[in-house]
Structures are given as C-alpha cells and as structure tokens.
C-alpha cells in the first residue's frame, strides 16, 4: 500500500452525481427521465437517436422487476414465495437466486437473501423500528442461511422452511441496472447512465468522448462527496449504513444485517463502493463487503481482482482504493492503494 494525494475541483464533484449535468446543452445533453421505483429515486440519461424509446423500455422493465421483487407488494413473486414457502421461480428470480447463492458462497455467507425475518424484526420492512432482544434474534437466526433452501437448478423449483423469508433488496437494484443497460443497448443509442439509488451503471462514452465521472458520497455527510471515479461500461455501487437507519437511545441501527449475529453489521467500515462490469455482482458484493469489513474485503479482492475493484472508507474516514482503479480515482484526501 502507498499513500497518494490528488486534488479535485468542487464543481466537478457536484456535477458528477449525474455525469450528464456537466455536459453542454443541445443534442449532447441527452434525454433524462426520473422514476420512483424499488423504494428509491432513479435517474436515467440516454444519448442518441432512439433515446426516448430506450427510456420507455427501461421504465417498463424497472416497473416489471419491481413487481417481481418488491417485498412490500403482496402480489409480487417474492411476497408470494415468502407466503407459500415454495414455488417454481420465474426466469428473473432464478437468475437472481442463483447469483445470490454464488455470492453467498464467495463471501462465506456474508451475503444472504434469507435475512428478511431479521429486516422485519428490526422494523426495516414496515418502518416500525425497534431493537429485538437476544432471544428473539437467536430464534430468528435458526432459519437464516441459504443452505437451508432446497433449490433445483434444472426446474427452478424452490422450497424453504416455514419460518424463512427471502429479500433481494441487496442485489435487485444492481440486477435492474444491468438488465436495463443491456435492454437499452438494443436501441439506436450512443450512451446511457442510470442511477438507481446508490447504483450507477454506464454504457458508452460521453458525447465529448471522455469517461463518466461518478461521485463517491461522503458517508458522514451525504450532501457532499469524498472523491470522483472516471469509468466506462461499468457499474459503480455503494453500500453504507447511512443509507437507511434509525436511532434509539443514542445508538444508530442501520439496514445491512450481519447474518452471523442478526444485528446491523459493525465491521468498522462506513461505506464500500464496488466497481465492476457486472451490475448484479457489484450490488451483491457491496453489501457483503460492508458486512465482512476491511481485512476480509481485501482478502476477497486479492483472490478476485480480475472481477471487481473497490473503494473502502473506514471509521476514521480514511479511504482505501484497489490498484485496478487507483489511477481513475480523484480525491482531495489522502488514500491508500491496495495491491
Ligand atoms: P445495499 O444497499 O445494496 O447494501 O442493500 C441493503 C439491503 O439488502 C437491505 O435493505 C436488505 O434489504 C438487504 N440486506 C441486508 N443485509 C443483507 C445481507 N447480509 N445479505 C444480503 N442482503 C442484505
Ligand atoms: Mg447491494
């Protein structure tokens, strides 16, 4: 590791939330659309001849996926599965379940879509926040674990214990970004940037041929940024406890659950940003690495450095950037490069 210092101009940082803001007016500005879905505010910008048609298709696709994956919607595929405890999965849910299982294995169980009963217990499912006691958590933890799910990858049939419920919230937005980006590439467009909550995915280059600039949020103050990443054809996904949390008796409890303890992950990281060509993997990994903490995240990166890169922010707000993207990252603070 070695320290590196770079400076950035504040204007670039603000413009970088949505790279298109920095572009000149007229044809090169792209066509924008804002959508509220998957419990989050989404912004899509598309450049090229068929931008409007591509955006229509994108919006339909996001709504379709929201209709499959939303735990808050009783008629969604996931809700039905959580209710009936068995079923034959749709093509999208098969893909998501299988990818979730791979990421679960890759991260030694840190990523686990069977945590939904814990999300409910802490109140993140309905907004009725509370702190469950140890007995309740240990009772719920007995039925957390992807190995308890019976799944037939030939037929897509899934069976789970009565007490279990699934939640694709840690991977669904990344999958949606990936799907929508692939779908829009089928239209006559030159480039696109979509931002679904903390998930950004880019295709092609900006009209001036430069790379997209994606801001990495300051986990302590989400109206500001700690750095800017220049990327092309990549997903940039950030997970952090600051995204959803509540406070009780002066303690803050956030929405990323450590499947080993049943409690909000307390690994010493404030945020994890994953950069990867595959939006689904980027999303699953950002959640998992936040649970795993610095040391295990670095070990995992070292054995998969051809698959993803990352930016970690620790509790003292120090940044760590993996070697694969260190020359694409600008921050006015010092950061360490991980090799
Ligand atoms: P993200 O913002 O992508 O990190 O996802 C956070 C969401 O993922 C939470 O709101 C939950 O729906 C879900 N989640 C929480 N903890 C985990 C975990 N350990 N593994 C998988 N999904 C999780
Ligand atoms: Mg995630």
Can you tell me about this structure?
The chain has 339 residues and is of the alpha+beta class. Helix content is 30%, strand content 27%. Strands 1-18-16-15-14-11-8-7-3-2 form a ten-stranded mixed beta sheet. Strands 4-6-5 form a three-stranded antiparallel beta sheet. β2 and β3 form a beta hairpin. Mean pLDDT is 92; it is low at 1-26. It binds adenosine monophosphate (AMP) and magnesium ion. Magnesium ion binds next to α8.
Key features?
single chain, 339 residues, alpha+beta, T-fold, ten-stranded mixed beta sheet, three-stranded antiparallel beta sheet, 9 helices, globular, binds adenosine monophosphate, binds magnesium ion
Number of helices: 9
| Unique bound compounds | adenosine monophosphate, magnesium ion
According to DSSP, the number of beta strands is 18
Multimerization state: single chain
Most strands sheet = 10 strands, mixed
The secondary-structure element order is: EHEEHHEHHHEEHEEEEEEEEHHEEEE
What is the CATH superfamily classification?
ApbE-like domains
Provide the CATH topology. Answer: T-fold
Strand proportion = 25-35%
Average pLDDT over all residues: 92
- The rounded Rg comes to 20 Å
Architecture, according to CATH?
Roll
Unreliable spans: 1-26
CATH class: Alpha Beta
Order of strands in the sheet with most strands: 1-18-16-15-14-11-8-7-3-2
């Amino acid at each position: 590791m070695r320290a590196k210092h770079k400076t950035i101009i504040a204007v670039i940082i603000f413009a970088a939330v949505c790279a298109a803001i920095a572009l000149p007016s007229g044809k090169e500005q792209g066509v924008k659309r804002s959508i509220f879905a998957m419990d989050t505010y989404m912004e899509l910008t598309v450049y090229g001849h068929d931008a409007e048609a591509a955006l229509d298709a994108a919006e339909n696709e996001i709504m379709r996926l929201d209709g499959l994956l939303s735990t808050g919607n009783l008629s969604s595929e996931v809700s039905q599965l959580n209710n009936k405890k068995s079923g034959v999965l749709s093509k999208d849910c098969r893909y998501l379940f299988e990818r979730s299982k791979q990421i679960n294995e890759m991260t030694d169980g840190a990523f686990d879509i069977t945590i939904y009963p814990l999300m409910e217990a802490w109140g993140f499912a309905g907004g009725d926040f509370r702190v469950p006691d140890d007995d309740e958590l240990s009772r719920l933890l007995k039925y957390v674990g992807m190995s308890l799910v019976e799944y037939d990858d030939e037929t897509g049939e899934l069976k789970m214990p009565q007490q279990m419920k699934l939640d694709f919230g840690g991977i669904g937005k990344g999958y949606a970004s990936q799907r929508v980006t692939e779908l829009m590439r089928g239209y006559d467009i030159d480039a696109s940037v979509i931002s679904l909550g903390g998930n950004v995915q880019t295709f092609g280059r900006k009209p001036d041929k430069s790379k997209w600039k994606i801001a990495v949020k300051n986990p302590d103050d989400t109206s500001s940024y700690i750095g800017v990443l220049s990327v092309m054809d990549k997903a940039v996904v950030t997970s952090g406890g600051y995204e959803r949390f509540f406070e009780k008796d002066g303690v803050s409890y956030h929405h990323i659950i450590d499947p080993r303890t049943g409690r909000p992950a307390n690994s010493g990281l404030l945020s994890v940003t994953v950069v990867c060509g595959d939006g689904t993997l980027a999303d699953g990994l950002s959640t998992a690495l936040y649970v795993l903490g610095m040391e295990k995240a670095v070990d995992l990166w070292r054995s998969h450095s051809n698959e993803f890169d990352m930016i970690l922010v620790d509790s003292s707000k120090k940044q760590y950037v993996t070697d694969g993207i260190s020359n694409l990252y600008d921050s006015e603070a010092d950061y360490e490069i991980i090799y």
